[in-house]
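Batch 3, record 17
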Amino acid sequence: MEEKKNKTSEAKLMKGNEALAEAAIRADIDGYFGYPITPQSEVLEYLEREIPKRHGLVLQAESEIASINMIYGAAGAGARVMTSSSGPGISLMQEGLSYIASAQLPCLVVNVVRGGPGLGTIQPSQGDYFQAVKGGGHGDYHLIVLAPASVQEMADFVFEGFRLAEKYRNPAMILTDGALGQMMEKVIQPEEGSLPKIKTPWATTGKTKDRDHNIITSLFIKPEEMESVNLQLQEKYRKIEKDEVRFEEIKTEDADILLVAFGLSSRICQKTVDLGREKGIKIGLLRPITLYPYPYKRLNELADQVDFMMSVEMNAGQMVEDVKLAVEGKVPVHFTGRMGGMIPSPDDVLHEIESILDNQNVLQD
Amino acid sequence: MSIERPSTLDFPPDAEGMEMVYCRPDTLTDTPFHYCPGCGHSVVHRVLMEVVEELGLQEKTIGVAPVGCSVFAYHYMNIDMQEAAHGRASAVATGIKRVLPDRYVFSYQGDGDLAAIGTAETIHTVNRGENILMVFINNGIYGMTGGQMAPTSLPGQVTTTSPYGRDVKMVGHPIRIADLLIQLPGAYYVTRQAVHNPNAVRKLKKAFEKSFQYQKEGKGTCFVEVVSNCPSGWRMTPVESIKYLEDTMFPAYPLGDLKVPEKV
Amino acid sequence: MRQEHEIICAGFGGQGVLSMGSIIAYSGMIEGKEVSWMPSYGPEMRGGTANCIVIVADDRISSPIITKFDSAIVLNQPSLDKFEKAVKPGGLLLYEQSTIIHPPTREDIDVVCVPAIEEADKLKAKQVANMIMVGAFLEKRPIVKIETIVSALKKALPEHRHHLIPVNELALKRGKELVHLNEKITA
Ligand SMILES: Cc1ncc(C[n+]2csc(CCOP(=O)(O)OP(=O)(O)O)c2C)c(N)n1
Ligand code: SF4
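Prediction for the assembled complex:
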């Protein structure tokens, strides 16, 4: 596979947003529906430029509410479809996402997060973690959430997102941020056409004589029925939690201190790991790649090894709650981060660690 | 109109003996506009605020800013203002007017805001005949987000999301929202104006003055469209953009009154 | 040993600071290195200040966002005020002569003044001032080859703008020379 990739596409310097848009074409999307919003308008702009020359469909909707409902319709008709937006637009999509999750339709939604709440700022943030992993809309449902940390992953996770969404008939989300969307790095694009289309016998494509009519709905008015749909969803989520957890570890083998960070924050923490080790502080990093399902188990194991953990986020401390859940009180879990579009620097994070260590020493003295 | 009051803008110290003929109205703050050179937003802000000042309504007027280039209107307009979510300004204005019926309320929106994402609110605000002024800046593009296609972009118009020109088969024709709104009984006064030359500015001012008068009389919704420019989004110089307005925009959006009160 | 070079390019929007950074990054990639280019984005770019962080390294780059730099290439006063203190001790600070009123004062770094705008005017191509800066930078810190920059330009520019390549090439060379001229004057 790796070899094949290299043969078919050379390395390119691309913006995260454009790498993602190019990957969408290569993933053979049947449709993209979206509405402009900074810092991700390049996705729509790239597709408007490229799709007419290649294949697929792109349509600028009149709002994000329209976009997500176009997704509902097209996914229900068996098409491979995606949309992208940022905070304010993703908030408007929550109703639609809840319907899509309930109707069990596969699709990919990209959130290039900016600082909030409200209209906020267009600078990068991770403030939509709760919204992405804890539901966001109404009812008991989950999105499968992938958090890229490089421009390469912005492209790769389009494929991964569709693979998971289609395997489980569940909406998937790429949770990224304005900085990853705007920055350029080297990318090797996934091979065009390497993601086969799934069979969609459940789709509304026109009733033929050999089957019952297909219905896409999220309405199950009888509570017994609604409960059994819920049970089915929960069974699916348990399976996802068992089989699809993804994470990356950096220098955890001998770590005394564990940083936990996703997306851009994890890149910053990689540098902190190096800076710390230069000073003889054994820091390691766990980077959750899937935010739902979350690597609770591995974090719990690492809690037996390290002195403390620290969650580093570009928000007020959201994922830290999951880290605490994971370690079950075995070790202290700290948090550091910036909000509102500000980004913690590798040195900031190291200072935090050092001051925790200093405090511990004072206590021991 | 004569200006009776020296403005809060300090008179230059060497101006003794000179007559003040032009100054910034008190209803504008001294924050410099952030708009691109030649952009119509600044002129509309000024004209609107001149009217509020001349009618003595600074203390009684409440404005609602949109999401678009004029999102910071509240930095410039020296009156109480609220900032709405994208497209929802007329609903926010409804909320204000319903609880403060004796105040003068206006919303100020671009074409993406009013005629794309906010279409439902626009139509229903007018349909209820909300007793407010809706100011609609139609520049045929999304200025703030960097020049994407708006619902009002013209057929064939090149934007960042219609790189091969607006294809009406794919995305429909430009929406003439004012023409739609006149169908609704709640619309009391609907007019389409411009700010590309002094004469147009004078006419716009008249339209605003009438709108405040009608609001005082509780007549219903006044809708003032301003066909404006976006030199940055159109990738033109300000002068080219004026020519484009005259040659291309006005034929598609003819200026003038669309609905005027019936004579009694 | 692992080589990594962290650069900040900063100036006004419209001076080509973002493209200056991207051409360095692109050239690094052509030479098989790992690169990242992180722009400032947002409304401040309309006529305001713009900057980008470029990192060129032998292997995987950790944080694309950093606060200390090996080199700063600066094209206006606000950027100099902001980034002079962000250069690592022993690092390099290159600034454009005509845009700076208060020159840098640090003595623990290598400071080079380049009259790029004046020289670009002499070449009758205002828009290549940024390439003069790049030429000067690469003379001091040869992290990529000048020839690679030229071939990167060939790849990055659309066909109808290829006639601009010779003047860019000239600008790069001019930048290279200016570093030495200036050294002689200051020495
Ligand atoms: C829910 C939501 N979607 C998208 C945006 C991004 N956005 C900001 S302004 C704007 C359109 C601006 O265009 P217009 O209303 O025509 O005003 P102009 O800037 O041209 O004055 C968009 C799409 C947003 N802020 N919120
Ligand atoms: S982008 Fe267009 S609408 Fe916005 S301020 Fe500039 S010229 Fe005006």
